[in-house]
């Protein structure tokens, strides 16, 4: 059985200018010692405009913190006004990119097909996708959440190679728990994360399923991280609001 390294990623969403970004990343590093940063892969996901500054802070201070973007174009280059390519992100030192966040699905009408194309574009540029899936409240109320999420996983991973699937990070984020203060219970998180892993095993084999890291996201904070991380199929967290405070985010990273 593979040992999956926990991964805690902070999605800053559309918050913090590049000066504030530098301060936050430096403060975060001050709150975490080398052993803590070694035990848990720690990732920040600032807005595009902060990436160059975060890269400089991380490289200048030799911080053991990874960073990435919140979205990527499915295209390589060309006449796509306002878009940012995977190659541009890779050149800035990004390791990760969030793809298919529920806010992009909802406010930018991102479809499963587009998300699949963006995942392929990210891999082509050498980035690791943090691929988000999750159900809205009405789907949960109909108890259709497991099938909904595994169908999103199927669509997002369509046509990927085995080594890419092993590398991807999947974030299960129930939409009703994002930014609402309503956290799924640890059992709720395990139910869907476990079903995603079972689906991966069914389609790609136990070896692949065993390697994939699956995060939970939705109102994660210092007070609930340990019980969520205690679930066997939860390998990390995607954190929104609580990632904007250095000490708060550090205390999530220090969960073990
Ligand atoms: C998110 O946006 O991915 C998220 C999980 O947000 P929050 O932690 O604020 O619920």
UniProtKB/TrEMBL annotation:
Subcellular localization, as worded in the UniProt entry: Cytoplasm
A molecular-function term among this protein's GO annotations: triose-phosphate isomerase activity
Gene Ontology biological process terms in this record: gluconeogenesis; glyceraldehyde-3-phosphate biosynthetic process; glycerol catabolic process; glycolytic process
Pathway the protein acts in: Carbohydrate degradation; glycolysis; D-glyceraldehyde 3-phosphate from glycerone phosphate: step 1/1; Carbohydrate biosynthesis; gluconeogenesis
Keywords, alphabetical: Cytoplasm, Gluconeogenesis, Glycolysis, Isomerase
GO cellular component, one term: cytosol
InterPro entries from the UniProt entry: Aldolase_TIM, TIM_sf, TrioseP_Isoase_bac/euk, Triosephosphate_isomerase, Triosephosphate_isomerase_AS
Chemical reaction(s) catalysed: D-glyceraldehyde 3-phosphate = dihydroxyacetone phosphate
Tagged with keyword Isomerase: yes
Enzyme Commission no: 5.3.1.1
PROSITE patterns attached to this UniProt entry: TIM_1, TIM_2
Active site: residue positions: 101 (electrophile), 173 (proton acceptor)
Domain of life: Bacteria
Chain positions recorded as substrate binding sites: 11-13, 179, 219, 240-241
Family: Belongs to the triosephosphate isomerase family.
Subunit structure: Homodimer.
Function as written in the Swiss-Prot or TrEMBL entry: Involved in the gluconeogenesis. Catalyzes stereospecifically the conversion of dihydroxyacetone phosphate (DHAP) to D-glyceraldehyde-3-phosphate (G3P).
Name recorded for this polypeptide: Triosephosphate isomerase
Organism of origin: Actinoplanes missouriensis (strain ATCC 14538 / DSM 43046 / CBS 188.64 / JCM 3121 / NBRC 102363 / NCIMB 12654 / NRRL B-3342 / UNCC 431)
